[in-house]
Design goal:
The protein is built from 17 helices and 19 strands. Strand 18 and strand 19 form a beta hairpin. The chain is globular and about 70 Å long. Among the domains are: 118 residues, Uridine Diphospho-n-acetylenolpyruvylglucosamine Reductase, domain 3 (2-Layer Sandwich), CATH 3.30.465; 103 residues, Alpha-Beta Plaits, CATH 3.30.70.3450; 99 residues, GMP Synthetase, Chain A, domain 3. By secondary structure, the protein is of the alpha+beta class. The mean pLDDT is 97. It binds flavin-adenine dinucleotide (FAD). The site of flavin-adenine dinucleotide has 36 residues, from strand 3, helix 6 and strand 10.
């Protein structure tokens, strides 16, 4: 990772940034790299562990207004240096790592609520608002974001949009792209662009969506208007045991294609049920398990919808396990990301998230599982636990979580082993008719597979867009499989 600035140039950069955001809101390379080490991907951690950090920003600037963000971007264009936006830093693909130096823009201090419309249940909020805090503040007013990524305690609202994420209630409320109505963006040349106020219009393509999932390459989201919901009056939980995964998938398919909308529908394969879910719920699970939750403003309707879905589970061989498992999971849903559940070095870990339609879903599960299990020498003791947790009316997400108790002691060998597993899983998903990811974004990890996903024409289109809006390639260069 080459340094792009000498110390003198860096000092001039720090001074120039200080004139925009105030000197106390700028860190130089030395302090900036200590405080902002990159995101939460295993790749970031392992590189830092071996003293070769992936995130090598020359300065970190913390703006408080959109105008300050725009002025920083203009400065970067003038100096021709890269910019990497940093939200909560909870990404798992290395997207927020400033791999080519330059300026990291820390958005965590942009947290104002600009407008709350209680009639339309919409809110305009700045990108740095922490997701957990946002939800808690809304709950005090009887409202909810309903976007609950498992990383809520670290993630920012803007980061959720930029990475095109999903929350645990996505099956009913949609992924982040279904929550967002509009956004304000500082473009890569430093203009302030206000998108149409609602996404329903016929004034050309929906440009807000160009920013959702762009991971910063098309600009910096400085505010967004998103939908809210009332806190539900009723939550109805249940869980079912299935003899086979196929039965659980078929029950899920029937629930979705007939228009029922569980807020939560999590189908755990045997490994995930016994070695992950069971650790939290301690319910004596025996194998494939599905956890369901229906919620809503109208308790009678919620219960009626739930009962129809539960009948579908029974008709597909599901054995009812009762409401306690779901309730315990709901209360403990964040424990999985803390000790003793969360992995740490020298372990290796990662997830892959893929989506397939119902026609291809079983084959995708089988092929991805087979490919991952056979990707590396059995001596590494790879563990694999898979669940299906974001369902659509045409298919479902498959989420294999893998781990290796201890990887190689050499950085390059460890990364090569990691990449072998990711490669096997991604190719297997693609060959089975699925996509390369569902909600974890691209970052460094999946950048090499963007061409597989989009093809030559798709990459040409993306590169053309990027060159058009960012002629000097300031924003997040090298990300998304682009130059
Ligand atoms: C334990 C754990 C559990 C997780 N569970 C989930 C989950 O359930 N669902 C899910 O979707 N994800 C999950 N993630 C992944 C991650 O939390 C999400 O991708 C999240 O949306 C990232 O938000 P962030 O603010 O931390 O973004 P960052 O990691 O800071 O940044 C992500 C990308 O977006 C860019 N970016 C950040 N803010 C902006 C902005 N305002 N404008 C433009 N670009 C920006 C960054 O440059 C980077 O490319 C999990 C991560 C962890 C560690």
């Amino acid at each position: 990772m080459s340094e792009i600035m000498n110390d003198g140039e860096m000092k001039s950069l720090v001074d120039a940034l200080g004139k925009i955001v105030g000197p106390s809101n700028v860190l130089d390379r030395y302090e900036g790299r200590k405080k902002f080490t990159g995101d939460q991907s295993w790749l970031t951690y392992v590189h830092a562990h071996y003293g070769k950090p992936l995130s090598v920003q020359d300065a970190v600037a913390t703006p408080h207004t959109t105008q300050e963000v725009a002025d920083i971007v203009k400065l970067a264009n003038k100096l021709r240096i890269p910019i990497t936006p940093m939200g909560g830093g909870s990404g798992v693909q290395g997207a927020a790592d400033a791999t080519r130096g330059g300026i990291m823009i820390n958005l965590r201090e942009m947290t104002k609520i600009r407008h709350l419309d209680k009639k339309s249940l919409t809110i305009t909020v700045e990108p740095g608002y922490n997701v957990k805090q946002f939800e808690e503040d809304l709950n005090k007013q009887g409202l909810s974001f309903t976007h609950y990524p498992a990383s809520a305690e670290w993630a920012s609202v803007g980061g959720c949009l930029a990475a095109r994420g999903s929350g645990v209630l996505s099956t009913k409320y949609g992924n982040i792209q279904d929550h967002v109505l509009s956004c304000e963006v500082v473009t890569p040349t430093g203009d302030i662009l206000q998108m149409p106020s609602v996404p329903k219009h016929a004034a050309g393509p929906e440009m807000t969506m160009l920013q959702v999932g762009a991971e910063g390459i098309f600009g910096i989201i400085t505010a967004c208007t998103i939908k809210l919901r009332n806190l539900p009056k009723r939550r109805n939980f249940n869980a079912f045991h299935f003899e086979t995964l196929a039965q659980g998938i078929e029950a899920g398919r029937q629930i979705m294609v007939t228009g029922l909308r569980p807020a939560v529908m999590r189908l755990y394969d045997k490994e995930a049920a016994l070695h992950s879910l069971e650790r939290a719920v301690a319910a004596g699970l025996k194998g494939v398990t599905k956890v369901l939750m229906f919620d809503g403003d109208h308790p009678t309707l919620t219960d009626a919808e739930a009962n129809v879905a539960y009948d579908i589970c029974r008709q597909n061989g599901g054995v009812e396990l009762g409401c306690q498992i779901g309730q315990t999971w709901w209360e403990k849903r964040y424990v999985f990301y803390h000790p003793p559940y969360a992995p740490y070095l020298p372990q290796m870990w990662c997830t892959m998230d893929t989506v397939a339609d119902f026609e291809h879903i079983e084959a995708t599960y089988d092929k991805v599982t087979h490919a991952m299990k056979n990707a590396i020498d059995p001596k590494w003791g790879l563990t694999l636990k898979t669940h299906f947790s974001h369902w659509y009316d045409w298919g479902s997400m498959i989420y294999p979580r893998w781990g290796v108790p201890k990887g190689p002691d050499d950085l390059d060998e460890a990364v090569a082993l990691h990449n072998k597993i990711i490669h096997a899983a991604t190719i297997a998903a693609h060959e089975a008719g699925a996509v390369i990811n569902d909600h974890h974004g691209v970052g460094l990890r999946l950048a090499p597979y963007m061409k597989l996903e989009l093809g030559d024409a798709g990459m040409k289109f993306m590169a053309g867009l990027k060159k058009g809006v960012d002629p000097l390639n300031i924003m997040c260069p090298g990300k998304m499989g682009l130059e």
